[in-house]
Amino acid sequence: MKKPRLVIVSKADLPEASEAVRKVPGAMMVSAATRAGLDRFLHATADLVDQITDDEMRNIREMVGGESFAAGLYEQSRQLFETVAIAPDFQEFLTLPAYELID
User: What is the separation, in whole angstroms, between the first and last Cα of the chain?
Assistant: First the structure.
């Protein structure tokens, strides 16, 4: 099974980066200095997380069965994961969003 991945070449502001990115199909260039490529990288990361999460949610549903899946907190867990993994606002303490869900 081929695992999804992102290949990032940093220092996109340097001439050598263009050569490096040509050697790796599908690689993206990012520069922290100029922020070039950062938006593309963030969107690609979010898309990849969505893809992996969708796949894993399907796997869990198959393992536990549809009825158990619907009765569980799987979707809520997914939302919590996405909040700490790809939300635009960085969570300094990853447990804080989880505390809000405790009754």
Answer: 40
Strand ranges (DSSP E) for the chain?
Answer: 8-9, 28-29
Asked if residue 78 is part of any domain, the answer here is yes
- The DSSP bridge pattern shows strands 28-29 and 8-9 to be parallel
The answer to whether 34 and 11 are in contact (CB under 8 A) is: no
pTM of the model: 0.73
Task: Give the H/E segment covering residue 23.
Answer: helix 15-23
On whether residue 2 sits in a domain, the answer given is: no
Q: How do the pLDDT tens digits run along the chain, 103 residues long? A: 677 888 888 888 888 778 778 888 888 888 888 888 889 998 998 899 999 999 999 999 999 999 999 999 999 999 988 888 888 787 787 788 888 888 6
Domain that holds residue 51: 8-99
Instruction: Report how many domains make up the chain.
Output: 1
